Amino acid sequence: MSDNNDALVEAAMESIAAAQSLSELDEVRVQYLGKKGKLKDLQAQLKSLSPEEKREFGKTLNTIKQSIQTGLTEKKTQLEEKENSGPDLEAIDVTLPGVRALPGCRHPLMTTMDEVKSILIGLGFRYDDYPEVETEFFNFDALNTPDWHPARDMHDSFYTTKGNVLRTHTSAFQTRAMKNFGPPPLRAMTSGRCYRRDEIDASHFPIFHQLDVIAIDENISFADLKWVLYQLASSLFGKDVQLRFRPSYFPFTTPSAEVDVMFNGKWLEILGAGMIRPEVLEAGGVDSEKWQGFAFGLGLDRMAMIRHGITDIRLMYENEEAFLRQF
C-alpha cells in the first residue's frame, strides 16, 4: 500500500481505538466503510486506471477494507464484553455518600382508623367491612331518609347507571348488620370510604372516611352511649378529656346529639350520635318494642387532622412524601 493508504488505515485504527461505546464505533464504521465513506472515495479512482492498475489497486482496497473491518470487529467484541461485565468499579467513587432508602410509614388516616377500631374492639364491638356501592334501601330508606330528603338529590350523591349509590355514610351498614347477625344483643361497627359531591377545599373532599357503631340490647340507654363515648375519647385524647353534647337531628336517631371535644382550648365537633329510631330497628328485622339501641359515627379524616394538627384535608389525599414522612 502507498503512504496515503497506510495513513488512511492508521487514522482508521486510531478512531477505532478511541471509540468508547458501540454507537461511537458505528460512527467510525460509517466514516470509513459507509456508502459515502473514505474507502468509497478511493474506489472512485478505479475508473481512471488501466485494467492492470485496476487489479493491483483492487487488491490494495481489499487489504485496507479487511484491516479496518478486523479492527472494528475486535473493538466491538471488547466493548460488548465491557458492557456485559457490569459497572467499572474503578470509576466508582466509594467516598461519596450513598442513596439513603427512607423507611415507609403508615398514613395518619389509617393509623387513626386502626387505633379507634382497636379501642372499640376492646369494648366488645365486632368489626366487619361492608359494601361501598349500596342500594338506596340500605343507604337511605332503611335509615328513615325519605325520597324528598336533599341528600338523595343527584347533585349531592354519586349514583351508578344501575341506580345504586356510592354510600354517603357508613351508617348504611346498620340495617345490614341487624339482618346479618340475627336477633340482638348486637355490638357492631365498620369503617371506610364514603362519597359526596362536595366542592374541594381545605375542609371538604368528595372522598372521606367514617367509622360507624351500633349497639342493640334490651336496656340500652343514652347513658350507655355517653359512657362508650367517654371511654373512646379518653383513650384518644387523655383521661381528662372534656366532651360537650349538643342537641341535633338525624333521620335515623332520636334523641340525637352532636358531640364536641375540648382540644387545645377549643371545642371541636368530632361525631354525631343518638338512640336508634324504631323505624330503623324494624327495617333491620329487630322488634322495636323489645329492643333499643344507640348509634354514633365519627369522621376519621377530621379526627386525624385534629390529632396531628393538619389544617388542610387535601394533604391527606395527595400522597406527598414530604408530608407523610412526618408521621
From TrEMBL:
UniProt keyword annotations, A-Z: Aminoacyl-tRNA synthetase, ATP-binding, Cytoplasm, Ligase, Magnesium, Metal-binding, Nucleotide-binding, Protein biosynthesis
Cross-referenced Gene3D superfamilies: Bira Bifunctional Protein, Domain 2
Keyword Cytoplasm among UniProt keywords: yes
Membrane-spanning ranges: none
Enzyme class: ligase
Pfam families associated with the record: Phe_tRNA-synt_N, tRNA-synt_2d
GO BP terms, alphabetized: phenylalanyl-tRNA aminoacylation
MF terms (GO), sorted A to Z: ATP binding; magnesium ion binding; phenylalanine-tRNA ligase activity; tRNA binding
E.C. no: 6.1.1.20
Domain (Aminoacyl-transfer RNA synthetases class-II family profile): residue spans on this chain: 185-306
Subcellular locations according to the entry: Cytoplasm
PROSITE patterns: AA_TRNA_LIGASE_II (PS50862)
Keyword Aminoacyl-tRNA synthetase assigned: yes
Required co-factors: Mg(2+)
Main location: cytoplasm
Cofactor binding description: Binds 2 magnesium ions per tetramer.
GO CC terms of this entry: cytoplasm
Family assignment from sequence similarity: Belongs to the class-II aminoacyl-tRNA synthetase family. Phe-tRNA synthetase alpha subunit type 1 subfamily.
Quaternary structure annotation from Swiss-Prot or TrEMBL: Tetramer of two alpha and two beta subunits.
HAMAP family, alphabetized: Phe_tRNA_synth_alpha1
PANTHER family linked: PHENYLALANINE--TRNA LIGASE, MITOCHONDRIAL, PHENYLALANYL-TRNA SYNTHETASE
Protein name: Phenylalanine--tRNA ligase alpha subunit
Organism: Gimesia alba
Organismal lineage: Bacteria, Pseudomonadati, Planctomycetota, Planctomycetia, Planctomycetales
Encoding gene, per UniProt annotation: pheS
